[in-house]
């Protein structure tokens, strides 16, 4: 039975997460503050720690520092889950040694469980044995469905976001290997999504394939300069060709 530690000072949240993880077969240890969390981690050596940042008696940042200094705990996987959502706060946690960072309000308990299981799977299994994950950010539902069907048939895991803002949220915690991004969308356009993806430490290295119904030279130059891997016209690429492009990028 996999053992995880939840360090969280809000008792109602602690019990909600404990119940969900125990139902999934985990042995769940809990700590109401950073100080006791460090002690439990040293004694029990869980495979992963879910760590809140705002707590009494050592905040989450201090907990990470203490765990990473100790030879017995420095290799424990750490997933920060917090309501602090500023880019500098996320960057600080990751640079101190956390494996990932999610915003509490972005995930249901089940989605948090799925996130933890992906982190554990990627830590345990060679990457070549894990299905590659593709995020499709596209507001035209039929096009998104066609891409999804073809990618799924080829063995990829896929998720769809039908607007830019939702796509950005999924990108931040979905552990995707590649992102397909439409440029013209409601709520947040592709340029802003691409800009935010490349600013966020959690996603800035994920390759982004941009697609659109327009192919102006200045548009193509702009997205490539912003960090997109490539740009293609929807009307010129079949779903099968899109899948081949995805495969080629992931081989690099």
TrEMBL record:
Q: Which UniProt keywords apply?
A: Phosphoprotein
| Response regulatory domain ranges (all copies) | 3-119, 133-249
Extract one GO BP annotation from the record: phosphorelay signal transduction system
Q: Which residues carry this modification: 4-aspartylphosphate?
A: 52, 182
Q: Which Gene3D superfamilies match?
A: 3.40.50.2300
Q: Which InterPro entries match?
A: Bact_response_regulator, CheY-like_superfamily, Sig_transdc_resp-reg_receiver
Q: Which SMART domains match?
A: REC
The protein depicted here goes by the name: Response regulatory domain-containing protein
User: Where does this protein come from, organism-wise?
Assistant: Candidatus Portnoybacteria bacterium RIFCSPHIGHO2_12_FULL_38_9
